[in-house]
């Protein structure tokens, strides 16, 4: 089982810093994760914290793609911080060992799942950065790890309609640009 969740926490820290940087009137801005707005993206990733908490406790997991703004009513940053704090508290040693269903991958310990979950907050951090005109350069180490995860999970997500088709990356593109193109994000 993955004992080191530092990448997961670094991805959450990055996401949180971008949530904090969205201007008060910026939550309706469109994102590269069409058709979602900045608030939709923040709600989806905040909902992901509720999903992880449910996995940690064995409770039913919420749908985090249908109406994601319900996870961030009012103050988005406060809703995010509350969900993150509650999720973190649920990640006990026993919870990290709990087997969780991962579709075609079978069951994995929650701690291993969180190692791959870096992709979700990382890519949506980029979406928020673009939508709110914040710096879009992501941590190269996290990008590298997330790209490996993306290759494992992209096909079933595309089949289910949860991920856009890949786009061609510009010749000589760095790994971040290639990851974003693979995930169907247009090159800014």
Architecture overview:
The chain has one domain: dinb family like domain (Four Helix Bundle (Hemerythrin (Met), subunit A)), CATH 1.20.120.450. Helix content is 55%, strand content 3%. It is built from eight helices and two strands; from the N terminus they run ααααββαααα. It has a two-stranded antiparallel sheet with strand order 1-2. A hairpin with a 5-residue loop joins strand 1 and strand 2. The mean pLDDT is 93.
Q: Tell me what portion of residues adopts beta-strand conformation.
A: under 5%
Order of helices and strands: HHHHEEHHHH
Widest sheet: strand ordering: 1-2
Q: CATH homologous superfamily?
A: dinb family like domain
- Helix/strand-derived category reads mainly alpha
- The coarse silhouette is globular
Major β-sheet annotation: 2 strands, antiparallel
CATH architecture designation:
Up-down Bundle
Tally of discrete structural domains: 1
Mean pLDDT: 93
- The residue ranges in which pLDDT falls below 50 over 5 or more consecutive positions are none
Report the radius of gyration as a whole number of Å. Answer: 16 Å
* CATH fold description: Four Helix Bundle (Hemerythrin (Met), subunit A)
Helical run tally: 8
- Helical proportion? 55-70%
Question: Keywords, please?
Answer:
188 residues, mainly alpha, Four Helix Bundle (Hemerythrin (Met), subunit A), two-stranded antiparallel sheet, 8 helices
């Amino acid at each position: 089982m993955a004992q080191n969740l530092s990448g997961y926490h670094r991805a959450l820290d990055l996401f949180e810093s971008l949530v904090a940087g969205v201007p008060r009137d910026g939550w309706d801005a469109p994102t590269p994760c069409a058709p979602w707005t900045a608030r939709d993206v923040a709600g989806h990733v905040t909902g992901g914290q509720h999903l992880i908490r449910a996995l940690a406790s064995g409770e039913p997991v919420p749908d985090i793609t249908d109406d994601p703004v319900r996870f961030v009513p009012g103050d988005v940053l406060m809703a995010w911080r509350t969900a993150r704090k509650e999720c973190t508290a649920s990640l006990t040693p026993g919870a990290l060992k709990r087997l969780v269903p991962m579709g075609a991958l079978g069951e994995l310990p929650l701690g291993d799942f969180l190692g791959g979950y870096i992709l979700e907050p990382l890519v949506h951090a980029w979406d928020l950065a673009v939508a709110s005109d914040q710096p879009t350069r992501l941590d190269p180490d996290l990008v590298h790890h997330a790209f490996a995860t993306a290759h494992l999970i992209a096909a079933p997500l595309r089949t289910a309609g949860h991920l856009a088709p890949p786009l061609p990356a510009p010749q000589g593109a760095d790994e971040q640009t290639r990851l974003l193109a693979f995930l169907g994000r247009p090159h800014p």
